[in-house]
Amino acid sequence: CAVIGECSRATGLAFAESAANLLPPLLKLLRGASVMVIADAANECVRQMLTHTRAPALLSPLLAGAANRDASTALRCRCVTYLHLSLTTYSTETLHAHASPIGDAIVGALSDAGADVRSAARDAFHQFESRFAVLAARLRERLPAPARKML
């Protein structure tokens, strides 16, 4: 994982194709790793890939992981946290094509059964709102009253 993170840091966007191929197995490690060292290494690797590569292809697995109710709560929480990181580090132009699915994933996470997922979704929604104010306002209107109150 450390080597993958370093490759991402050193090569940036040129690492995009490799990062897109490596992300799904890394997310599986986060879901099923009973050894915390493995999960922590995979988490750090994913964070480095998102921070340094900033490839739009990395968003699809994160959106799927955030919306997957069959996945573990920890994985859903991490995926929402990664979406927040993407909203922080990616350019608005890169995110623009994915703004609607990202917003929908965050709104879905606001109603998640896991408290950690909901907390991460609140943080992500505020970052989303700072990037896409009009879309965030429309999404906020569609939220159920309890979720709107949480924000």
Automatic annotation (TrEMBL):
Gene Ontology MF terms in the entry: microtubule binding
Gene Ontology BP terms: establishment of mitotic spindle localization; mitotic spindle assembly
UniProt-listed Pfam families: CLASP_N
Protein known as: CLASP N-terminal domain-containing protein
SUPFAM superfamilies, per the entry: ARM repeat
Upper taxonomic lineage: Eukaryota, Haptista, Haptophyta, Prymnesiophyceae, Isochrysidales
Ranges for domain CLASP N-terminal: 1-150
GO CC terms, sorted: basal cortex; cytoplasmic microtubule; kinetochore; microtubule organizing center; mitotic spindle; spindle microtubule
